[in-house]
Structure formats: C-alpha cells, structure tokens
Amino acid sequence: MKGYKIEERAIELAQYIIDSKDTVRGAAKKFGISKSTVHKDLSERILKINPTLAHEVREILNENKAERHIRGGMATKMKYSNMKEDKVG
Prior knowledge:
Elements: H1 6-20, H2 24-31, H3 35-49, H4 51-88
Helix pairs in contact: 1-3, 1-4, 2-3, 3-4
C-alpha cells in the first residue's frame, strides 16, 4: 500500500469492509498495514472524506464488534477440540 494517498487508502479500505464484511484485523492483513491504521482510517479519516461511506462502514464495524465474543468463543472451542484430538490419537 506504499505510495497511496491516505484518502485513497481510506476509501479503498471502506469499500473493502463494506463489500466483504471483513474485520479490522482481516483488512489490515489483506492490505499489509496495522490494525491501528485501519481503525484510524475507518473511524476518523473516512468521516471527513465521505460521511455516507463512513456511516456504512460504522454499521459493519459495530456488527463485527457485537459478534466478536462469539468468534472468540468459537476459536477457543476449536483450539481445545484440537488439543483433545491430539491427546486421544
């Protein structure tokens, strides 16, 4: 993402989040930037650039935030399921 203007990056990130409904962490990995940068682009910068787009992104981020405890629980369940299989087999 080097060489991008910050505004272009923020718009591209916003479009990606809206289209894929991915998380901040997933977007950071895809674009090769930090979670902090993604969060700042999507919560502060995009609001100044395109308020309509910012509203759409905020809805997705709020939905992801509301569901994160479920994803965390599922990850923990998978972790311990794999540990149990390793001990049995």
